[in-house]
Amino acid sequence: MILFLASRPVTAPPVRPAAAARRAPRRRLPRFPRFRPLAPYRRLFSLPGTRAFTAANLLARLPMGMLSVSAVLMIAGTRGSYALAGAVTATGLAATALIGPLTARLVDRHGQARIAVPATALAVLGSLSLLLCVHYDAPTWTLFASYAATATTPNTGGMSRARWAHLFHDDPAALHTANSFEQAADELCFMLGPVLATLLCTGLFPEAGTAVAAAFLLTGVLLFASQRRTEPPVSPTPGSPSGPCGLSASPARSRSPLRLPGLPPLLLTFLFTGAVFGSLEVVTIAYADDHGVRSTAGAMLALQAAGSCAAGLLYGLLRPPHGPGRRSRRFRLCVGAMATLMPLPLLAARTGSLTALTCALLLAGMATAPTMVTGMGLIQSRTPAAQLNEGMTLAVTALLTGIAAGSAAGGWAVDHLSGPAPGLGLAYAVPAAAAALALTIALLTTRPTGTDA
Asked: Where do the segments described as Disordered lie (predicted)?
């Protein structure tokens, strides 16, 4: 009997309908994917160390929008000469154009922390020397020498972009978002820096802006350099001898990025893009002054930078172009959009309405950040990883040179076009012409090259 019972199959007891209903899984309605516009940016900062180096770099980058304005206000406020202040800052700009790429080359060869800290310390000493020379009424030539010493300031934005390129070298979408964030950060620093410098120099004392900017720069670079786990590794040259302190003494690492195919036309486009920025600033200040509201010029330029910042963040949500042909095509489209929108301030200024001009500046600024993001992406794809800082610093140098040339051209237009209506409104033809030249160069020369990644 026991064997008979054991041989029978064991069956589960019948389940009551109520119990079965309780155990049956509920049918879920299909859920639509939620719109998460900030998801790409959250993904960037989910990596360990990215938040720390970004915060430190923003602190170090803020002085780039403060130093020149602080120097102008400090020198003009104590020496009573805007011409002298402009000459001193122009000398520093020229020195930066010469020294900046050399500093970036050292950063590429020996690492960010090893070069950026002493270079920043030398630049801070130059700022403090300028402050003391102005305060104690030193000879005029000391102002030029002191401000020229600040040219060793490392390209903090380029070093941050190099870290993103190292972290996301195999993820084009994330790298595109990171480049968009970096361009928006540049615009934010250029928007807040002059305002902060003006408040410090006019609210406290003339030297306050330079002192605070120097403190921000040194503190930010020290904090940024301490984040070693996100620092891109140095690619040593095989067989290169070592000099003092272990630094390579061989100058023949590789050819200059200026000799890379496709890079000089990009730099020329950046030059005319910088001319857009420089002329737009000078003409806007002069136009506001001509209408008796010079104090609002800063707010008008801040709105232009805000439009560019917002456009940069939104551009980072788009899919990056895949392939060298599409990258070059996207760049030409962005430069074309900038050239299309830049005549808007010219049309608005001729109406005599400051409200219309402010809105036109806001719209015109929305094309600059996508142009810069796409251009920087092309430079990254055409520059070897071991020379990335140098390549991006050359782009910044081209921008600074263009800004200086654009400022001079805008000032010339203001001096020669002042008078009855339309008067200064015609001076907005200078940034419009610079944008058109940038588009012409991009259309004629920007083509896919063998170095595009």
From this structure: 230-253
Element (H, E) at 125: helix 112-135
- Residues in contact with 446: Cβ distance below 8 Å, sequence separation at least 6, in sequence order: 262, 265, 266, 269, 328, 331, 332, 378
pLDDT digits (tens, 9 = 90+) for 273-304: 888 887 887 788 778 777 777 667 767 777 77
Give the max Cα distance, the chain.
120
Structure tokens at 373: 């993001």
- 7: Cβ contacts below 8 Å, ≥ 6 apart: none
| CATH of the domain spanning 256-453 | 1.20.1250.20
pLDDT tens for 86-118 read 678 777 777 887 887 788 778 878 888 888 889
pLDDT single digits (tens) 227-255: 888 777 776 554 444 333 334 434 444 56
The structural architecture, per CATH, of the domain 50-164+193-232 is: Up-down Bundle (1.20)
- What integer pLDDT is reported at residue 158 of this predicted model? 79
| Contact in structure between 179 and 373 (CB atoms under 8 Å) | yes
Cβ(161)–Cβ(182) under 8 Å?
Answer: yes
| Per-domain boundaries in the chain | 50-164+193-232, 256-453
* Separation of CA 43 from chain center: 21
User: What does pTM read for this prediction?
Assistant: 0.69
Q: Tell me if 165 sits within 8 A of 232, measured CB to CB.
A: yes
